[in-house]
Structures are given as structure tokens and as C-alpha cells.
# Entry
Amino acid sequence: MSSHAEGSHDASHHHDDSHSPAHYVKIWAVLLVLLGVSLAGPEIGIRWVTLITAFGIAVVKAFLVIKHFMHLTVERKVAQYAIGACFMLMLLFFFAVAPDVMKHWGVNWHNEAASNMKREIERSEHHAPAADQAHAPADGAGHPEASAPAAATH
Amino acid sequence: MLDLFMLQGSSFAGSIDSLVWLVTFIVGTWFVLVEGIFFWLLFRYRKQDGVKAEYFDDGREHAIKHVWIEWPHRAILALDVIIIYGAISVWMEVKMYVPVTDETIRITAQQWAWTFQHAGKDNKIGTADDIILIDEMHVEVGKKYLFELASKDVLHSFSVPVWRLKQDAIPGRVITGWFEPTLAGEYDVQCAEICGIGHGIMPAKLYVEYPEKHAAWLENPAPMLASSNPQ
Amino acid sequence: MMRPIATTRSATGIPTGRLAVWWVIASEIVIFGGLLGGYLLHRFGHPEWATAAAHTNTMAGGFNTFVLLTSSLSAVLAHAAAEKGEGPKAAKYLGLTMLGGLVFLIVKSFEWTYEISHGYTITANTFWSFYYTAAGLHGFHVIAGMVIMGFVAADAMKNRELQRVELIGIYWHFVDLVWIFLFPLLYIAK
Amino acid sequence: MAESPSHAHDGHAHAGHGAHDGHGGHHEESWFVHYFWSTDHKMIAKQYLVTGMLMGVIGAYFAYVFRMQLAFPGKPVPGYGLVTGADYNALVTNHGAIMIFWVAMPVLIAAFGNYLIPLMIGCDDMVFPRINRLSYQIFAISAVLVVASFFVQGGAFGGAWTAYPPLSAKAEYSLTPAGSSLWLIAVALEFVAFLLGGINFVTTAMNSRAPGMKAFDIPIAVWMIVIASILFMASVGPLIAGALMLLFDQMIGTGFFDPDRGGDPILWQHLFWFFGHPEVYVVLLPAMGFVAEIITTFSRKKMFAYKTVLATTFATGLLSFFVWAHHQFIAGIDPRMANVFSVTTVLISVPIAEMCFVYIATLYGGSITFSVPMLWALAFIAEFLLGGVTGIYLGSSGADIYFHDTYFVVAHFHYTFFPIAIIGSFAGMTYWYPKMFGTFMNEAWNKLHFWVTIIGFNGIFLPLFITGASGDHRRIFDYTNFPELDTPELQSLRVLATVSLLVMLVIQPVFLINFFYSMFRGKKAGANPWKANTLEWQAASPPPHGNFPTLPEVYRGPYEFSVPGRDEDYWPQNSPN
# Structure
């Protein structure tokens, strides 16, 4: 059930090349490249590209850090199982709670407050002047919003 | 088992009680059986001078385990499946499958009172002739009702023990359910989810009337609570 | 303070300190998991929050990611130096890591002041509540990590308790990991 | 500003300030250091035990007050005065919270965990003594905070120990602005204390075993406490995040759980119960561990199917993460999810039932002496069976529609919590008392205390099963408002329950006096008064600092009783022949 690749099973870190400073700098460089890609991807604006670049690469970066920096993959099985189990529990929690919190209607119930909020905000967006709309570049240049922040209701 | 303690006032009360009987029967026999064996072992193997305790090597332990642990284990698993089947079928009948209903009632809970919006003579909710009463609900025996439950502030729970009906009211949500009263009379509505200091003092009155009396009530829906004469 | 013999034993083959840090990381995963899980559930439930999320400063987030990744590099270089027994060198790298944490916090403080002054406060709407709570809890963990790293670096300077350099390194990489997931969730999901 | 409930991190990488105070010997410790600033796991255990017992007295006092209000509604309660709706809610809320977080967990996990783990696995102390001391100090602060929440403006928090928002989130609904936040910070600090403590327990038990002690030579009590700590650490996280969100809702005005602002009260319920259900197994397992030690010692018999006990414990622990929403069947979750959780909840009865069968099978072929610890351990099994059995009613979703939030539920979880927290603790205290204090408690007074407590306990909760089935709802402070519940028969049952509580409370000072008196005047007890095999009985009573003159080696399992061909009917783990 270990959620990480089967690293070499030597708990003691003898000095093979995987521990030399040069190796770490190489991994760091790869991480920076991935960061660049994950920043560039969303600018294209295509939804699935953003998904792949931003979140997919985050998982790859996470794996690189876990394997090369934290050496979890070469750690004893019991530590890997503990970390993996806790991560699985969070997935369990997410998918078990999703039908109630993520969705706003189900068998014999309807989360009206959430649906009203969505309709209210979408309506307020159509009327708000199109000029300063969300897709203006996010940093710095956005001048103060004409209306109060999007959904401050009270 | 519940019918010993509480009247059965709605159509699905019977199926909930039969489920409770099923669980009582299965679980009761196991309880009596295990406690019996437990106390018998205590008596049989109490310390007697000159008698040493036994030592089970792996072979003997395995033999005992096979008979006294694995078989009960399988039996419990099988009985659990029966209980699960019973529980889910009752749950779907009461909470998931809503039959075609004759009338709708809108129930709103708030800190420390219930508001019931009856459909009125035109039998349609949301029209001018709706009858809105505080802490008082009038229904007709034998009619299927759809209720829409909502809360204005905190969590409450619409609970009618006689009907075996209980559903939490969540602020921001409208939760629907159904009931069909089968027993005329005056019953209690209780709040079953803590809702602040008035949680204990927000009962409501439930009048389940025969058709002609219900029709009479529809004519002049004066709140019954105001008048002192109980039905 | 005489250390108990218990600490020296290692029936699992993992030194006691590192085993404890793995358990700390496991309990932190469930804490951040709960918070980010709640956030994700609400983001999927409320696509309209994207307009609010549009006002987050992606460049600042990106730069902070670069800063944390670099500080992770210096943390692991500190660990490599500590393994070779070079305490002062490890302490220097730990100092660099702490500097990275400081830069991260400074960039974040500018970012937050800009956003708060523009009315996007924690009570503006629930997106901003999650934004400040998640980034705030992460920031708190960065500060806590830097404090402990200060002590470990002080010891490492005198070539003492060098195994702790690796331990605080693992914790720091975890804090970097949380940011690696926090960055796309808060800054890119627009 | 409110203390941030997140981690106090200075303990993380156990940053010592270097061994600056040199070779701090423990012989010339001042009185204050010995009792209040000690890093010895045995002294920290006693600190937890005494704090737990003190909070137990407070929790029992709350129970006395609100049970008197239920039996004699409207009449001022002697020793408290008139109980209003707000008072009642605050008393019930804090009775629940204190009994679980400040009595069951400290006594069962922290006190016995701290005392037994190093001794039973044959090492001199916990791996991180200073973090151990820090965890008690954070725990003591949380205990002070929860008691202080009664004396703040607006009174103590009254929204049930589950603290469901919006009632707990908004002061205008709960009317206890300061009480709610103080209560929440106290609970969050208690979690931090047990996270630090838990990490100490798990690391010590995993790494510091005596040489020769293989995994299956570890006594079941240690296994249980370690698995309980792991369950706690893996389940409390989301609730710590939830507590932070709720604290911001209360104090800053964010809208995490406010439906009008995009939040969702159901999210808190899931965060709470994801922790809530593993939590009840967190307190159950240590009690099961003590019972295992005691029934084997007093029936002079090997633990039946040691590996099965471990297997069922792991199965129960794992399954406990899949059952939490049975607390929310009718609380507004999607009915389809209720079916899933009903299946897992009914199935979790299988491993627990099997564990109880294995315990009972241990008695088969034994030579049982009914000493006081054995009486408590046997009472645990007998009472817990009824608690477990009545859980099936609540686990099957169909029946839970009626039973949810009635006194049937209250009676069910008292038939599980009382054996765990009270009977389990008394079993542990009377069994390890000779080891902790080097003297015996008075046997006769203890037997009187046992019988009166057990009879009193059954007298309280058997009637409550009936009132619950008759429709009595929870947390209602005056049933006269409900005609169906205001009947003489139900009221007489409530009075019977209250009288039984009074009987049970009256006998408790007998134990307390016996407990503190015997420390100084009790009959001296040797190192191994019960002739048991586990390592703590091979050390002196009470064990000196460092526990063993020379740390023991282990040659066999902990339950080699009545081995054929030996004259002695016990075989200590560390004796070579």
C-alpha cells in the first residue's frame, strides 16, 4: 500500500552519488523548470492545459521532493505506510464528504442557500461593468474594483 | 419492541418497529448466550485448591478457536447481513422513496418555535389561502403528506415519536420527506437537535383529525392552542 | 540533561528522532488534509469563487514557490554536510534556509497588505477566509520551522546533535510540499 | 489575542538547548521539581492520573446537578441552586466534553500509557522526556481553560460536546460569546497535548523495546495503547483544522460554516465525526488492554489466541475510519451515503465481538481468583457486551431514525463509555496500585466500592434505555412541556436513575480515601504481588528512577502461565531459565 515507488531498500544512506550536492542541485533545477511550466501553462487559458500543468506538475514536484530530498522512498516500510495511510485517509474523507458539501442537491434535499448564492453572483457579474472584469492581469495592475469585492454579502 | 413503549401513528411506523424487533431478536439471543457462557465459565473454572489452570499449546488452541471463535464469527457475519438488509430496506422506504402525496406542508424551525404552512382549501402550497400556524399542525388521517423542512437559524430536528419520524432541519437547506398518519388524536412534536437555551421548551402540537373534522377545521382555521378546550 | 537509554535503541531500524518526525509529518498531513479538503470541496461546490480568486497575485505566489524550493535545496545541502560531519557548513546552509523562509514571509506580507487594503479581507467572503486561513496556517508552520532551525543551527555550529539537521530538513521539505499543493489551489485555480 | 491552537512547535525536532546543564543527576531534586517539573515518565503518569481524577469529580458533579433537575424539575438543586435552560445545556455539554477529553483520555492513555509503556517494554524512560513533560503542561492548561469557561461573561458553552455550528459559531445563537471560544481553545490545546504525547508513546514503543522482545512478545496493553495513539493522531487532524475554522467563525466573523456566505454546517459535522468515531476506539483499546493483562494474571492462563486479538484490534482500528456518518443518518447527509455507512457500522461489530469472544475464551480452563482487579475486569466484559449489543440498533439506519438523539443513545454510549473510562480505570488502578505506590489498597473497602458502583451504574442506565425507547429526547431540561413524556411512569424511571446515580456517587469517596490513605498506611507490597510475567512486575515497587538496575532481556511471551512441567505457575519474561 506504500504510495511511493520502490526505492532501494537501504535505510542507511551510504555515500552513493544520490547524496552528492551536485545531485541535489540537479533535482532543484528540474523543480524550477517544472515551476516555470506550471506558471506558463495556465496563461494559455485552456482548462485542461491548466489542470495538467498546474496540478499535474505539482504532484510530480511533490514526488521529486519526497524521493530526493526527504529520502522517504528509501526509508523503512513502516514510515512509508504511516505517511501513505494518512494520505489515503484524506482521500477517503474527501470522497465521502463530497456528496454533501460539494454538491448542492441530492435525494430529498436541496442546498438552496448555496444555489441562491451562485445565481446572485452570476447575476451581479452580468450587470457589473465588463471593463474591469476578472481576466485583467491579476498582479498590480488591477485597479480597485468598482463594486465591493465579488461576493461580500454583508 | 417499540410498540410496547410508543403508539404506531404512521404508515411506516410498523416497518421500523419490525426492524427493531428483528434486531432485538438476533442481538438479544447473542447477548444472553454470551453472558450465559461467560458466567458459566466463571463458576466452572473458579480457583479450586489442587486444581492447576490448563496450558493450551498451539494445536489445542487452534482446535478451540476453530469451534468457539471462527464459527460464531461466521454466524455474526451472516446475521449482520440480514440486519443490514432489513435496515437498508426500511431506510429506503422511509427516507428515500417518496410516494405520490396528496398535500404538501412547509415546516420551518427557528430558535424555539415551529411554523407550519398548510396548503389550505385549494390544496396548493404557496397560495393566498395557506394556513400558517405557530407550534400547531393539522393533518388528516390516511392522507399522504409531503413535508418541506427548513430552518431559519441553527440546526433543529423535526421529531414526531408517534410517527417514528425524525429529520434534522439544516439552515440553508430544504429537506423533503413524507408521512401518512394512521392514528387520529393529539400528539407531540419535539426538537431532537440541541438548538440553544430554548431547546427544551419548543414543543408543538399535532392534531390528526378524521376527514370531516379536518374539513371543519379548514373552514375556520382558528389556532387550537389559543382556545383552551382540548379536541 | 542525561538522555534516556530508550532513545538510543532502534528496534525498527529507524533512528528514534527520524521515526518521531515521520509521525509528526503524518499528523500534519491529516491537519492540512482536513483544511485543504474543506477548501477543495467548497471550490468545486462554488465555481463562482473563481471571480474572487482572480484577485490573488499569481506572480507573488510563483516567486514564493521558487523561494521555498531554493530553501529546500539548502536544507538538503545542510543535511548532506551534516552527514559528512561538517557542522559549521551545515549551520551555514540552515542559515540560508531560514533566510529563504524570511523572504517567503516578507513577500507574503506585501501580498497580504496589498490584498487587504483593496478590501479582500478574511471576512470579505468564504474564499478569502479559506485563503487567509490556509496560507496563514502554512505561514505559522514556516515560522515554527525557522525557530527550531535556529536552535538546530546553533547546535550544529558546535558540531553537536548533527542528526537533528536531517530531522528539521524533513520537516522543512514537508512545509515546502504543502506550499507546492497550496500554490496551484489558491493562485492558479481561477 | 487567543492563543493559536496549532502546534506548539518547539518540541518538534526536540530542540534541546544542547546538554547545557551537564550531567543533571536526579538525586538532589527539589520538592517542586520532583512533583511538578519532573521528566520521569512515572511522575508524569501520576500527574495525569490525579488531574484526570479531579476532572472526573467535576464531571460527576455536573451529572449530579442535571440528573437532579431531570428527576425533580424546577426545584433548586442542593449544592447548585436553580437550573435554567442555559445552565442545563452548559452542564450537559461540559459533562460530555470533560468526561471524554479530560477524564477518559488522560487516565486511560496518558496516565497508564506513560506509566506502563517504558516499564512493560523494559526501558528506562520515554524517548523524549521533556516533550512528555510539555504535553502534560499543555494538557493542564487546557483543563484550567475548560473549567474557567464557566466563569466568563455569558457562562459556559452550551451547544453539546459536538459543538455543531451555526449554534457554536455565532454568539447571537449560543448566547455564550466567551464561553464558546474558550471551550474550543481548551479542546484544541488538549488535542495538541495528546498529539505530542502520542508521538512519544508510539516512538518509544516502536523503537525502545528490550533486546530479545519480538513483536509478539509485547504485552497486549502496550499494543493497545500504541494503536490507540496512532488512531488518535491519524483522526484528530481534520478536527484541528475544523477547530481553527470554527474559532475564526466565532472570533473574526468568517463564514466557513455559515450557509448564507457559502459555508456549510455539514462540513463541521463530517470533520467532527471523522475524528469522533475513531476517538471512541481510542479510549476503548487501552481499557481492553488492561482487561487482557488482568484476566490472564488472575485466571493464571495464557492469553487465548494472542494473534487473533491483534488482528481484530487492527481490523477494528482500520474500520473505525469508515463508519463516522452513523452519527449523522438523519442530520441532513445524503440518504444514499447513510446506506454505505450503515453497512460499515454494522460490520464493525464483527471484529469487536470476536475480540470479546477471545477474552471470554481465555477464562476457559483457568483457575480464577476473584480479586478486586479481576472483578473490575470481568465487570468490564459483562457490561461492555450490553453496550456493544445495543449499538446495532443505532448502526442500522432504519432503526436509528427513531432512536437518534433519544436517551436510548445516551444509555448505549454510557454502557460503552462507563466500562471504558470508569470500570477500565478502576481495574487498571487497583491492579497496578501495588506497583505505583508499593503498598496494597484495602481489599474489603474496594469490594464494597465495586459492588455499589456496579449496581448503581446499572440502576442509572437500564431505566434510561426504557425512557429513551419511550421517546425521551436528549438535552431537554424539563419534560413537563411534552405531554407524551410527562407521564408518572416515565418520571418514576427518571427518579430511579437519579437515585441510582446518588447511590453510586456516595460510594466514590470510599475509593478516593482508600486510594490516598493506602499510599502511606497500606500493607507493603513486594515487586510482584500478583505473580505476573510482564516486565513491570520484575522491577521494584515503586520502581526507582531509570526503572531497572540493569535493563532486562526478554526470552518469552508475556502470558506463559501454568506451563506444564514447572512448579511455579508463572514464568517472567526476563528470567533466562
Summary: The longest helix of chain A spans residues 77-101. Chain A touches chain C through 66 residues (CB under 8 Å). The first strand of chain A starts at residue 105 and ends at 106. Strands of chain A lie at 105-106, 109-110.
